[in-house]
Amino acid sequence: MISGTYENWMVAAFIFGAVTVAMLGAAWAQYLEHERRKQAMDVIKTALEAGKEAPPIIYEQLSKASQAKPPWSEVVVFSALGFGFWIAFANAEAEQRTAFLVVASTMTVTALGCLALAIMRPGERGKDDESA
Questions:
Q1: How many structural domains does the chain have?
Q2: Its pTM surpasses 0.90
Q3: Which of the listed residues 2, 36, 48, 71 has the most CB atoms within 10 Å of its CB?
Q4: Domain for residue 128, yes or no?
Q5: Residue 61 included in any domain
């Protein structure tokens, strides 16, 4: 009984750690994107105050930053969650297995869906429309 409880805590710790790392990574990426946009806006503001037009590349960067990004971080998060729940399913007692199976399969299907979206690269669609 003690080893079963220990294994449950290890699975919970793994899942918590994976989600925490993924959330911190996503937060860091959002912060860096915010800083890039802020710097671009500062360049535009400075140029306009000087009575000049900002370089076109600045506007291109802002336009590019507003496009949808492929969901690679979601692939990592849901894959880690699915993996953790599959481990929990494998180590669970008979009466708990169904709950872990439902969550593990849901996380796995969600990870596969995010992977399909990431591979199809929905953020690149705007580039194709402009060239048509």
A1: 1
A2: no
A3: 71
A4: no
A5: yes
Q: Which helix (H) or strand (E) holds 71?
A: none
H helices of the chain, in order, are 2-49, 56-65, 72-91, 97-120, 125-131
The DSSP code sequence of 103-126 is HHHHHHHHHHHHHHHHHH-GGGHH
Burial of 116 (0-12, 13-18, 19+ CB in 10 A): exposed
In a domain, 129, yes or no: no
CATH, residue 97: 1.20.58
Is residue 132, in this structure, part of any structural domain at all? no
The 10s digit of each residue's pLDDT in 40-76 is 889 889 988 999 888 888 888 888 777 777 888 888 8
Are the CB atoms for 104 and 85 separated by under 8 Å? yes
